[in-house]
From TrEMBL:
Organism name: Shewanella sedimentimangrovi
Keywords assigned by UniProt, alphabetized: Signal
UniProt entry tagged with the keyword Signal: yes
Pfam families per record: SIMPL
Name of the molecule in the record: SIMPL domain-containing protein
Signal peptide: 1-25
Stored InterPro entries: 26kDa_periplasmic_antigen, SIMPL/DUF541
Amino acid sequence: MNFKPLLFVPLLMLSQPMLSQIANASELPAAAHLAVTGKGMVTAKPDSAEISLNVEVTEQEALKAKGRVDAVVNTLMSGLADYGIEGKDVTASQLNVEPETRYDDNNNRVILGHRASRRLEAVLKDPSKLSDFLDFALKAGITEIDGIQMRSSKAEALKLKAQSKAVRDAKTQAERLAAELGVKLGSIYSIIPESRNLSSRYSGIERIEVTGSRLSKPQYLQEEMEFSATVSLIFLLDLGDDR
């Protein structure tokens, strides 16, 4: 009997961790095979933004601290319509008021004042107004903007599109490698949809904190979001009778 040598052709740019993932995700066939990993990426403009806001003030009296927080929240809410934000697009945590203390030389607790704070989440449906809205929020008295998440209403479709591009990329690489090696691609032995971990990446602002009396005007909005996916395919190989 004429035994054929086993042939395993990894993708030239495939990293060792990726090869380990392929091996762990599915048993490799006991036959000549080729494993490739394709990548796909699509970009899109965001059509909404989720913004996390926080207001925190300190006063000697708890009631005065609460009143200042209430005033900031009321000012913010009164101007939301100018940015297309409806009341239902805003959620707020409970008001929190707590004493600020220290201990004196005799280890006695001394109340220095009271800190009041409240956190709000707002959904802005027109990202082109993001910069102006953040300026407005800071002028209203918001003391911290600690998170901006850009969103797309077409996210699921964009993820699927990225996954499809990753599959096409993997097939193209496999066909090219097989041609260079003078072998034919057989059937697909395994599909490893690492695109379950599809991600979107937006390079934007993460946190703004009011630390002084003047604020510079940065560029808050980046133009596009990025959706990426990877898919690994394992093909059996047809080596021909003469191999």
